[in-house]
Amino acid sequence: MTIKTIQTLKNLHDEGWHCWAHCTGRNCGGASQMDITSLMKRFGAEHCFINETRISARLVCSQCGHKGGRLSISAPSSVRVD
Ligand SMILES: [Zn+2]
After folding, report:
1. How far apart, in whole angstroms, are the C-alpha atoms of residue 7 and residue 47?
2. 56 CA to middle of ligand 1, Å?
3. What is Dmax (Cα atoms) for the chain?
4. Domain segments of the chain: what residues?
């Protein structure tokens, strides 16, 4: 089994990974799943999300209005509803 390097938005999209944005505002645990297709259109498919700042600086929390957040990714689930 080959372990592929996941570092660009395209990698995430192609491998079915999920991207989450987390609010960094105080006392706010706001988080939402990002639409990777939209991110690719805006920032480019080859945009590297490792230590990236362009997307995270533009995050605006819908719960508290805080600007700025952090991104995390999660592997595709191996269990799904068919
Ligand atoms: Zn927030």
Report:
1. 8
2. 13
3. 43
4. 9-74
